[in-house]
Amino acid sequence: MATACSRVSCSLLVLLLLALSLVGSVHGRLKPSDCQPRCQYRCSATSHKKPCMFFCLKCCAQCLCVPPGTYGNKQVCPCYNNWKTKEGGPKCP
């Protein structure tokens, strides 16, 4: 009886871990068609909307990821975070 319960528990744990790993991978990787709405939200709080949208869309097309929120959280998207300008500043908003 104890073995059957532990097998069920282990099976449920494995399924939970698989589900969590899928959610994590879906959160980071976008389809190119998802870039426009994500960048619109990302750039919604800035007063420089055109340049923000231009660079956000460019970064999203390259990285297939846009950080959540209107500012910060770049650690969620390493490609987006690490892409720099020639001067060494951040390329992605």
UniProtKB/TrEMBL annotation:
<comment type="similarity">
    <text>Belongs to the GASA family.</text>
</comment>
<dbReference type="Pfam" id="PF02704">
    <property type="entry name" value="GASA"/>
</dbReference>
<protein>
    <submittedName>
        <fullName>Protein RSI-1</fullName>
    </submittedName>
</protein>
<keyword id="KW-0732">Signal</keyword>
<feature type="signal peptide">
    <location>
        <begin position="1"/>
        <end position="28"/>
    </location>
</feature>
<dbReference type="InterPro" id="IPR003854">
    <property type="entry name" value="GASA"/>
</dbReference>
